[in-house]
User: Which sequence fits this backbone?
């Protein structure tokens, strides 16, 4: 997922949560990047 | 490029405009060699020409501006404000402090993820280092705070600034 604006944070979280809810989280690797994405965002998405 | 840009910028001077806001876009894609040859001379001339007409510039240096920090010293002292998104303002102070006003310091992603304690600690350390001599315009790295940031974190941020920001 690409996050070029801070508005992307919420959508990325929704996507990760949706994968968890569907029971798919352990079957996929999620890569996030883009200008506004860093270690803090990665950590937050994992919570 | 310089003449039309400066002309447009100065057209608002009679209306009382004192600052020119110049948002840049991710110069980190340019090597210092390319930046210095093709990009910087034009931007420098615009800033200098505006300053000569009494207009200070607020330049938003999006991304990392680390490799080009020294070039800012080519501008006249007091030319304006360097607003850094990702360049550490503490590092910027070491190079351009006293020459250029520095703005920045709080990453929107930090506000998203950090605990209130970590935010308080960050502000205390940051202001502790930035206050002496030159000060800082404390600001989010980029003017956009996610809706997902806990309101508690914003409250703690403001409190921390009140606590650590006074002389």
Assistant:
């Amino acid at each position: 997922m690409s996050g070029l604006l801070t508005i992307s944070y919420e959508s990325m979280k929704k996507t990760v949560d949706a994968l968890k809810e569907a029971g798919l989280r352990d079957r996929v690797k999620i890569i996030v990047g883009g200008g506004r994405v860093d270690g803090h965002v990665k950590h937050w998405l994992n919570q | 490029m310089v003449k039309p840009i400066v002309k447009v910028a100065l057209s608002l001077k009679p209306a009382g405009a004192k600052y020119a806001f110049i948002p840049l876009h991710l110069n980190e894609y340019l090597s210092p060699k390319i930046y210095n040859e093709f990009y910087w001379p034009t931007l420098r001339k615009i800033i200098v020409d505006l300053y000569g007409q009494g207009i200070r510039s607020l330049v938003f240096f999006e991304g990392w501006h680390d490799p080009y920090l020294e070039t800012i010293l080519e501008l006249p002292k007091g030319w304006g404000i360097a607003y850094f998104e990702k360049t550490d303002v503490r590092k910027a102070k070491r190079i351009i402090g006293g020459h250029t006003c520095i703005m920045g310091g709080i990453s929107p992603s930090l506000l998203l993820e950090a605990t209130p304690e970590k935010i308080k600690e960050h502000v205390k350390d940051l202001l502790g280092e930035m206050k002496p001599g030159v000060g800082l315009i404390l600001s989010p790295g980029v003017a956009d705070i996610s809706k997902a940031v806990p309101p508690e974190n914003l409250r703690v941020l403001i409190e921390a600034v009140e606590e650590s920001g006074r002389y």
Q: What stands out?
A: Helices of chain A lie at 8-21, 39-46. Chain A has a mean pLDDT of 94. Residues 15 and 30 of chain A are 10 Å apart (CA to CA).
